[in-house]
Amino acid sequence: MSCFPVRLQEVRQAVSVCLRSLTVWAVRLTGSKYGCGGGGCGACTVMLSRYDPQTKHIHHFSVNACLMPVCQLHGAAVTTVEGIGSTKTRLHPVQERIAKAHGSQCGFCTPGMVMSIYTLLRNKPQPTMEEIRETLGGNLCRCTGYRPIIEGYRTFCEVISSFISGFHHAVGESLEPFCVHESDSNQIMGKLQTSGKEKLLPLDPTQELIFPPELIRMAESEERATQTFRGERMTWISPISLDELLQLKSQHPQAPVVMGNTNLGLDIKFKGVIHPIIISGFRVRELFEVTEKPEGVCIGAGSSLSTVRSVLEKCVCSLPAEHTQTLAALLEQLSHVAGEQIRNVATLGGNIASAYPNSDLNPVLAAGNADHLCVIPEGKREVPLDKDFFVGFGKTVLKPDEIVLSVFIPVSRKGEVVRAFRHAPRKENALATVNAGLRVWFEEGSNVVKEMSVYYGGVGPCTVSAERTVQQVIGRPWNEATLSDAYRALVDEVTLGASAPGGKVMFRRSLTLSLLFRFYLHVLQHLKDTVRPPSVTCRRFSDADSDVPSGQSEQDPVGRAVQHQAALSHATGEAVYCDDFPRTQGELFLSVVTSARAHARITHIDVSRALSMPGVVDVFTADDIPGKKFRSFTGIDEEILAQGEVTCVGQMVCAVVADTKPHAKLASAAVKVHYEDLPDRIFTVEVAVEKRSFFLPQREIQRGDVTKAFQEADHVYEEIRLGGQEHFYMETQSMLVIPLGEEKEMKVYASTQHPTMVQEAVAETLGIPSSRVSCHVKRIGGAFGGKVTKTSILASITALAAWRSERPVRCVLDRGEDMLITGARHPVLGKYKVGFMSDGRITAADVRYYANAGHTPDESVLKILLHMDNAYNILNLCSQSAACKTNLPSNTAFRGFGVPQTLMVIENMVNDVAMVLGRPAEEIREKNMYKETSLTHYKMEFDPENLLRCWEECKERSELDRRRLDVARFNQQNRWKKRGIAVIPIKYGIGFAEGFLNQAAALVHIYKDGSVLVSHGGTEMGQGIHTKVQQVASRELDVPLSMIHISETSTSSVPNTCPSAASFGTDANGMAVKDACQTLYKRLEPIRKQDPNGTWQSWVQLGHDLYMDWVKQEGRPYAYFTYAACCSEVELDCLTGEYRTVRTDLVADIGQSINPSIDIGQIEGAFMQGLGLYTMEELKFSPSGVLYTRGPGQYKIPAVCDVPLQFNVYLLSGSHNPHAIYSSKGIGEPTLFLGSSVFFALKEAVAAARSDAGLSGPFTLHSPATPERACVACSTCFTQMIPQAETETTQPWALELP
Question: Per UniProt, what is one GO molecular function of this protein (predicted)?
Answer without folding.
Answer: molybdopterin cofactor binding
